[in-house]
Amino acid sequence: MRKGQLVYVNDTTLLSPSENLGKLHRQPTIRLRIFLDTADPLEDRGGLDMDIHVTAQTALFGADLSGSPASTTLFGHEGGVRIRKGESNRIGCKDYEQDFAGDAVLVWRGECTFLEKLIYARNAGASGVIVVSDDDEAVQPSATVKEIAAAGNLEDVALVLLPHSSGKDVAAMVEGAGVSYGHVLFSLDRWALPSQGWTEEENDEENREDAMHVLYINDRALLNTRLLVP
Questions:
Q1: Which of 22, 30, 52, 96 has its CA 20 to 30 A from that of 204?
Q2: How far, CA to CA in Å, does 56 sit from each of 41, 105, 165, 179?
Q3: Residue 60, Cβ density class (10 Å: 0-12 exposed, 13-18 middle, ≥19 buried)
Q4: What pLDDT, on a 0 to 100 scale, did the predictor assign at position 20?
Q5: Cβ-based burial of 63 (10 A; exposed 0-12, middle 13-18, buried ≥19)
Q6: All residues at 6 or more sequence positions from 38 whose CB lies less than 8 Å from its CB, including other chains
Q7: Which region, left, alpha or beta, applies to residue 188 given φ > 0 means left and ψ of -120 to 50 means alpha?
Q8: What is the CATH number of the domain that holds 94?
Q9: Is 226 a member of any domain?
Q10: Could you report the average pLDDT of every consecutive run of 10 residues in the chain (230 residues)?
Q11: DSSP for 24-45?
């Protein structure tokens, strides 16, 4: 085996229990549009593009961004949701000292689980969390059934993970908000990136098919491994 290769397992006895099948239908990736509400066109922003699209990994807990009510009314609705940083809480692993009032909070990966980051953000009134990873490896945030049950209601909050290469640019935009331009916003775009060369219909079908065949060990998704299911 070489790094990055995809392993296929032909054993239907490894299918997840029926109570966990719902999460397998989640779209593993989603595209975000990051943009500004106001900006001075003459302002030098250090070469940063202030209207970009980035691909993020969705979480296997919280609101389902491929079609839940939260995906259209709170986290990433069409009009745009403000992205804010947590003052004195860059990693998002402790209680916040501010109320996010429905905004999304941008944090960095590490120190605690993805689920804990979402819980802290939810308790501070955020509609969700955008996590900047420390590398570009594709990881779909997950948690055990017991951990998710203990977290309480997560239907109206969501979490996504950005690769480091694009996430650091988003973080730079959020860091500069309120200085030379206004707020940084984002909205959801459920279709494939043009560079992938897929049609919208083909991409949606491909993502659903891929998500349904993820292999789980102790309720956690096994990276780069898929089940062969007839």
A1: 52
A2: 28, 15, 11, 27
A3: buried
A4: 45
A5: buried
A6: 181, 182, 183
A7: beta
A8: 3.50.30.30
A9: no
A10: 69 52 66 79 52 90 79 79 90 94 94 95 95 91 90 93 93 79 82 41 45 55 64
A11: HTS-SEEEEEEEESSB-TTS--
- Per DSSP bridges, beta strands 184-189 and 29-36 are antiparallel
Domain membership of residue 156 (yes or no) is yes
Domain boundaries, position 79: 26-198
Give me the pLDDT at residue 65, please: 86
**Tokens describing residue 68:** 């839940």
Q: What length does the chain have?
A: 230
**Token pair 């950005």: residue:** 162
Give 90: exposed, middle or buried? Use CB within 10 Å, 0-12, 13-18, 19+. middle
Report pLDDT for 209: 47
Residue at token pair 């055990």: 144
The answer to whether position 38 is within a domain reads yes
